[in-house]
Amino acid sequence: MSKPLDGIKIIDFTHVQAGPACTQLLAWFGADVIKVERPGSGDVTRNQLRDIPDADALYFTMLNSNKKSLTLDTKKPEGKEVLEKLIRESDVLVENFGPGALDRMGFSWERLNELNPKMIVASVKGFSDGHHYDDLKVYENVAQCAGGAASTTGFWDGPPTVSAAALGDSNTGMHLAIGILTALIGRDKTGKGQKVAVSMQDSVLNLCRVKLRDQQRLERVGYLEEYPQYPHGEFSDVVPRGGNAGGGGQPGWVLKCKGWESDPNAYIYFTVQGHAWEPICRALGKPEWIDDPAYKTAEARQPHIFEIFETIEAWLADKTKLEAVNILRKFDIPCAPVLSMKELANDPSLRASGTIVEVPHKKRGTYLTVGSPIKFSDLKPEITASPLLGEHTDEVLASLGYSKQEIFTLHEVKAV
Ligand code: COA
């Protein structure tokens, strides 16, 4: 079956997570992604947190499926020559090196544009070009702190907290993928490539946009009515950490269910959706609350929202999280169990939809990964194993017109 990105050739000069997540997505959708790696070592994640000696770590395999691996020392003249050939016939180059690394290698945007004016050059950096921190190297949690996520996550009496979700890494990669696809469509109209740059700070901030909303509301009115600090606590002049409060206009909280004493995930998230108040009262066996002026409106409920949550917890005390959700779903209440990674890994619906996939790998045997979270009516991305280091070096060199003898020489001088 043909795929939408068939025929798009991508030089994947990425490492760790942000860049690889972007190029993996494009590979799933049909792009020919050639990962360029340093001979002998390759992407650092091949070795990071290994669970099987001598086999690529899951960190690598889960971010580099459906790609080819070409080893190339792009600091050696022979390696640079190969890279130049590849650049001349590729559509996109994606990189997430530290600031200035590509320029130091001799491949500035101007040089790349000269070699192939139709090529799109896509970069991830910690901070955007010209930012006063644009010289900094950045990893996930640094970006979460710089992008507003950490200052607004966690509980008010605890320190800034980072999320387990890769808001700085994979999220930035997804932003970059949107930028690349946009530039490819733009190229169809203009015939020209362009530079696409995404910073991790900007990508985190983009996901924290409701907190910037809250900063402005706070400055105007002095309080934020959906935060647990309202109406009994104090507000300063910065958006506080709101614990597990809902970020929109619907109050919600993580509530204990049967077994919470021993199971760290025996909880549900319960949302007190404004217009669902009547079904909530019926589900909880509290019909007297429906028309009680102390509970009837969202405004009336807010001052004692935590008493309401306590009442719901009392109702949950003899129900497991799954039993509770099975009851609440009949009342159309927005809620879900707090699911552990173990539960997600074995979830039959996620297996059936291709969101959790088993991938056979030459050295590891089978491993689990997250497949495409994007579903299409005419495309079912097939997830194939990540490449071994240099697995496709000879194949890629041959496709660039190198003879067997020339390939042998490149190996001899350790350029590949
Ligand atoms: N052949 C020869 N040299 C290669 C090479 C190859 N195939 N691939 C990479 N290199 C070199 C680069 O030229 C660079 O050398 P230089 O610093 O001497 O110029 C070096 O390897 C890579 O440097 P760098 O990317 O800075 O690696 P690092 O391990 O010190 O830093 C990061 C890692 C992730 C912190 C840094 O790359 C970074 O800040 N990237 C941008 C933001 C980002 O994506 N963060 C990670 C999110 S998961």
Which parts are unreliable, with pLDDT below 50 for 5 consecutive residues or more? none
Q: If you compute it from the alpha carbons, what radius of gyration comes out, rounded to the nearest whole angstrom?
A: 26 Å
Number of helices: 17
Ligand roster? coenzyme A
Report the major sheet: 6 strands, parallel
Strand order, sheet with most strands: 3-2-1-4-5-6
Overall structural class, as computed from helix and strand content, comes to: alpha/beta
In whole angstroms, how far apart are the ends? 33 Å
Protein model, in words:
The chain is of the alpha/beta class and 416 residues long. 35% of the residues lie in helices and 13% in strands. The chain has helices spanning 18-28, 58-61, 77-88, 101-104, 109-115, 140-146, 170-190, 200-207, 209-221, 277-284, 298-301, 305-316, 321-328, 341-345, 348-353, 393-399, 404-412, and strands spanning 9-13, 32-37, 68-71, 92-95, 120-125, 195-199, 252-256, 267-271, 335-337, 356-361, 365-370. Strands 3-2-1-4-5-6 form a 6-stranded parallel beta sheet, sandwiched between helices. The chain has a 3-stranded antiparallel beta sheet with strand order 7-8-9, with helices on one face. β1 (9-13), α1 and β2 (32-37) form a beta-alpha-beta unit. α1 crosses α7 (170-190) and α6 (140-146) packs across α8. The mean pLDDT is 97. Bound molecules: coenzyme A. Coenzyme A binds next to α1, β2, α4 and β5. Coenzyme A is lined by residues 16-19, 36-38, 72-75, 96-98, 101, 104-105, 124-126, 137-139, 169.
